[in-house]
């Protein structure tokens, strides 16, 4: 059985994050960047799996400068390297090796607001926003998330799960791949539920494949197999 955090609370938290306009601090160069959406002409950047940050053209966030925005695209630059991001695409690598397979074995996540840990990644090659939930038995997503990722979840096994709103029907499926940064896991169990969710829950079907350590406001996942 899967237990979810209260969805209205998560939605409020997501809105606070998305509308936050706080100043950026100088940090180490970004390793991965994704475009979560647009707020007018501002780009919602997800840098190294951190919560989305609204950034205007000409401004810099965690070492990533937004050069220009247009429609659902944004041109970013770091250390002289320019990349065009599109809303919904998987995170792009800003590190040394671009392209190729994901061969990393370590994920480092900073704590977001409320002490939750967030991660930008991809499911079956489609962009996804996760929130770590050690109380969830599997990765959990809404039916809308599954449809955006091109998952034919209705072919999965029908079941029921417990949520903050009671027991609801769900579909048990297996994801071809789940990727965060340069770490990729294959054949991951997941659940699709008919509930609106601001984030997919990164549950134990993914987390159990890692050794998890926490140091203050940082979580480190080291791949076991």
Description:
This protein has 225 residues and is mainly beta. Helices cover 10% and strands 49% of the residues. It contains 3 helices and 18 strands. A hairpin with a 2-residue loop joins strand 13 (157-163) and strand 14 (166-180). The longest helix is centred in the N-terminal third of the chain and has 13 residues, at 7-19. The two termini are 25 Å apart.
Keywords, separated by commas or semicolons:
7-stranded mixed β-sheet; 4-stranded antiparallel β-sheet; mainly beta
> Which percent bin holds the helix content?
10-25%
Give the overall average pLDDT.
80
How big a fraction of the residues is strand? over 45%
Largest sheet: 7 strands, mixed
State the end-to-end distance.
25 Å
How many runs of DSSP E, i.e. beta strands?
A: 18
Task: Based on Cα principal axes, name the global outline.
Answer: globular
Rounded to an integer, what's the Rg over CA atoms? 17 Å
Order of helices and strands: HEEEEEEEEEEEEHEEEEHEE
The low-confidence parts are 1-26, 96-102
Instruction: Please give the count of helices.
Output: 3
Task: Label the structural class.
Answer: mainly beta
Provide a concise account of the structure shown.
It contains three helices and 18 strands. It is mainly beta.
């Amino acid at each position: 059985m899967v237990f979810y955090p209260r969805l209205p609370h998560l939605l409020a938290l997501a809105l606070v994050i998305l509308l936050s306009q706080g100043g950026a601090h100088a940090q180490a160069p970004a390793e991965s960047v994704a475009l979560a959406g647009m707020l007018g002409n501002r780009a919602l950047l997800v840098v190294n799996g951190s919560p989305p940050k609204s950034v205007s053209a000409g401004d810099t966030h965690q070492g990533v400068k937004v050069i220009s925005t247009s429609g659902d695209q944004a041109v970013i630059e770091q250390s002289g390297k320019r990349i065009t991001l599109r809303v919904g695409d998987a995170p792009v690598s800003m590190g040394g090796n671009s392209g190729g397979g994901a061969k990393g074995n370590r994920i480092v996540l900073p704590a977001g607001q409320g002490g939750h840990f967030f991660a930008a990644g991809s499911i079956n090659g489609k962009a996804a926003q996760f929130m770590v939930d050690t109380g969830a038995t599997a990765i959990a997503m809404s039916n809308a998330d599954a449809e955006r990722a091109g998952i034919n979840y209705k072919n999965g096994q029908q079941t029921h799960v417990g949520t903050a709103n009671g027991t609801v029907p769900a579909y048990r499926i297996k994801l071809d791949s789940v990727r965060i940064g340069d770490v990729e896991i294959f054949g991951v169990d997941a659940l699709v539920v008919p509930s609106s969710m601001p984030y997919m829950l990164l549950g134990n079907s993914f987390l159990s494949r890692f050794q998890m350590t926490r140091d203050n406001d940082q979580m480190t996942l080291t791949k076991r197999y």
